[in-house]
Automatic annotation (TrEMBL):
InterPro entries: NTF2-like_dom_sf (IPR032710), SnoaL-like (IPR037401). Transmembrane segments: none annotated. Residues 5-109 form the SnoaL-like domain. This is SnoaL-like domain-containing protein. Pfam families: SnoaL_3.
Amino acid sequence: MDAEARIREYYDALEAGAPLGRFLADSSDVVKFGISERLVGGDAVRQGLREQTQRTADWDVDSRALRVIGRDCHAWFSDKIVLSWRDVESGTRHTFETRWSGALEARDDSKPVFVGMHVSTATPF
């Protein structure tokens, strides 16, 4: 399982404005904390990510401290990211110094999927 490659693929998809649902496990126990929300369950997480993609553009994911530890079919990670995007309605650009952590699981010989993700920030950058 190459969890680091999968995490970087997620970052690239976020920057490209590509759909992100494929990166999350399709189960009711998945949890994603974002800067301003808590989403529980695969359906809620995918819906939240779709809405985020519709409301935002021009993402920049500047990873500065990615650490990944993997064991068999599980991995966990942490990162420090300067994260920025533009709100498509107002045109306002948002930039935050964020902290990310999460867990991935490889299921059915497929690419690993996130089973938990947490993004937080202390203050705007």
